[in-house]
Amino acid sequence: MRGTLPGLPSPHPLAETLPGLYRDDEFTMRLCAGLDEVLASVMVSLDNLPGYLDLRMTPEDMIPWLASWLGIAIEPGIPPERQRELLRAASETQGWAGTARGMELAVEAMFGVPAEVIESGGAAYATSPGHELPGEPVPAVVVRVLAPDVQAIDQVRLDAVVNALKPAHVMHRVQVVASG
What is the pTM of this model? Predict the structure, then answer.
């Protein structure tokens, strides 16, 4: 998070707001100057708040803070542009949370390659009883990632991402397949 910036002048010095009686007191002026140094970065941050909330302009160290607002944990070491892309994709992926499409969007956003989710379940309706249920009896998903370089995809990380996205009772498997 942001801290004090040495030498940053306050846009609204406290001493200027004091009555003339206190402006002659050296202790009061030093106290106000010390408070100005602490409050200057707060005032500058508040003045520039729209810039902090805009993904195109926010400083790199603010991206994980914005991600925390959406419940997203940004892993250390991810390049800042990739972090910005993840946050841009978050609004669409969160609308699809818990679905096959949501897993595809999230995996594509995290790894930058297309993903395909194959489900074992199904849905059907019948007008009379006794029809066989669609899908498999055990719920499971296979997440297939199509990557130009199979070695570039961290399968342990991919497995962890899929595990976090799928419902807890559903088994899963990941596959990384060479595209092209």
Answer: 0.56
